[in-house]
Amino acid sequence: MSRRDLIDATVNAKIVLANLWMCHFILWIFGDMFTLMQEMGESTDDVVIQFVAPTTAIVLTLVVVFNLVGRPSLVRMVDMVLAVVYLLLNIGFFADATEGWEYYLGSLCVLFNVLIFWRAFTWPTEATPAN
């Protein structure tokens, strides 16, 4: 009997996933920059501004590093879970969207979330003999 292990090749799915996350992160920050520019007069005492926004950005940066150094099975699981979480967050942001650029960037973020999930889900495997 054999099991199927995820392939951890030289130019591999981790590098692809890290790049996809980086693309998502750049779009996320770009969207936040516009939002902050529009809301310069608002209070920064809001919990979302003080906790949720920085936390989501921190998680995105950590997942980039984790994709490069983590074990393939853990990277795959984390990517699939976080892709769904961020997909739902991005879809939720559409409820507050009022500007065309918000829909444009939001659509690209959703696309990257789908690509990240799909790439992690279809991570190549190779058969290895059971011990």
Topology, number of strands: 2
Provide the low-confidence segments as ranges.
Answer: none
Order of helices and strands: EHHHHE
**CA(first)-CA(last) distance:** 9 Å
Number of domains: 1
Strand content: 5-15%
Summarize the structure.
This protein is mostly helical and about 130 residues long. The protein is built from 4 helices and 2 strands.
What does this 3D model show about the protein?
The protein has 131 residues and is mostly helical. It is elongated, with a radius of gyration of 17 Å. The chain has helices spanning 13-38, 47-69, 72-93, 100-121, and strands at 2-6, 125-129. It has one domain. It starts with a strand and ends with a strand. The model has no long low-confidence stretch (mean pLDDT 80). It has 4 helices and 2 strands, in the order βααααβ. α1 (13-38) packs antiparallel against α4. It has a two-stranded antiparallel ribbon.
Spell out the key features of this protein.
131 residues; mainly alpha
Lay out the secondary structure:
Blueprint: E1 2-6, H1 13-38, H2 47-69, H3 72-93, H4 100-121, E2 125-129
Antiparallel strand pairs: 1-2
